[in-house]
Amino acid sequence: MKPFYHPKTLYWDANNIRQILEGRGLSQGAINLLKNFFPLAGQNLYESYIDYVQELYSADLSYLYEIPGGIARLPAAFYNSTICRYPAKDYPAITPNALGRVTWKTGTRAEGIYLNSDGKAVILGYGNKENPGRLYEQFDYVVCAIPFSTLRTIDIQPLFSSLKMQAIREVNYINAQKTFVLFSKRFWEEGGPGVQIVGGASYTDLPVTQIYYPSDHAQYCVKKWTNIPGSTPSTNLYYGRNINSSLSKEPGVLLASYSFNIEATRLANMPCDLRFEEIKRELEMVHGLPKGYLDPIAIAYKTVNWDDEEWFRGALCFYSPEQKRLFSCAAATPEYNNRVFFAGEHISAKHRWMQGSLKSGMEAANALALACKLQQHQ
């Protein structure tokens, strides 16, 4: 994030994705085709082009990782590290006394951020499920990782800088929805090579837009390379002859629909039973199955609509045109005399990605440590 940008960067920031594609000579038919293969861009054609392309420029998407055992292990590792009395494994060069003490307050909602009367501490107002009133605690420093969509309704006195308050009010968040379906068997893994689907995704112009397949059976598969002259070599996975066909008969959870923006709003706001029916019928169309085939094997489903989530009120930060120029630097700038620091995917240069959130958290922690050190020498 910079206070000033190169004119080329400003050009990309001022134009939305559709304008850039049209400027490169793409027809509306070509744009409509591309929308299906790049859902994040295709479902946000009127957002800032640079906010989309900047996550591709540094090749981050070429190095993606997963956590064996599930992503829930990441916050669990942080939690266990902070409550451990002797965390020598995680912080071998720091004594326990120097690490201090961490108190977790679950079920607690932030309601206010205040600068105390002498300007040397930050007061947080909060509520919890057990106490209907507002409680207050004072801190030397605070890292605020609350999305701007939620920070908008938190009492801030005195107000942050003018541009920061403007960013809190205006920074654009898009909606997203995910619908998971539990099936009694993995119909997508049935068949022979070229038919089985183990891991990966399907893209479609139907309202479900994206379908993601679990990869937990990939360890039992054979990898087959496809090398077509003039194109990039690709691979697909399928079960070898010596693999028991019972694997596809195991229950499995399918991310049956993942969509953004208005596509997410339209599907997620259907009545629950009609939405489930719609998704099943579209899955059958995508996989060439007869109508009603999935009814007896679709056991349960769950939809998450981020616009309806109390602590998010929107799924992902996605700048509208001009917002990078206006707000990227101001959003990350500390407030209250370097006593309130900011972190989160909306603060980072990598909007929408956990990598961006984690990096912004490290940067906020380093900036806080430096501010603390400078304060001690004043």
Summarize the structure.
32% of the residues lie in helices and 20% in strands. With 378 residues, the protein is α+β, with helices and mostly antiparallel strands.
**N- and C-termini, Cα separation:** 28 Å
| Name of the level-1 CATH class of the largest domain | Alpha Beta
Radius of gyration: 24 Å
Low-confidence stretches: none
Largest sheet: 4 strands, mixed
Instruction: Count up the helices.
Output: 13
Task: Please identify which CATH superfamily of the largest domain we are dealing with.
Answer: FAD/NAD(P)-binding domain
Secondary structure: helix percent:
25-40%
Q: What would the average pLDDT be, to the nearest integer? A: 90
Strand percent estimate: 15-25%
> What shape does the CA trace take?
globular
What can you see in these coordinates?
The chain has 378 residues and is an alpha+beta fold. The chain has 2 domains: 96-173 and 316-376, 3-Layer(bba) Sandwich (FAD/NAD(P)-binding domain), CATH 3.50.50; 176-308, Polyamine Oxidase, Chain A, domain 2. The chain has 13 helices and 15 strands. The chain has helices at residues 7-14, 17-23, 28-37, 39-42, 49-57, 73-83, 96-99, 148-151, 162-170, 261-268, 272-286, 323-332, 354-376; strands at 108-115, 122-128, 135-139, 142-144, 155-157, 173-174, 176-183, 201-203, 210-212, 221-226, 234-239, 252-260, 298-305, 316-317, 340-342. The strands form 6 sheets. A 4-stranded mixed beta sheet has the order 3-2-1-5, with no helix packed on it. The chain has a 3-stranded antiparallel beta sheet with strand order 12-7-13. Helix 9 (162-170) packs across helix 12 (323-332). It is globular and about 70 Å long.
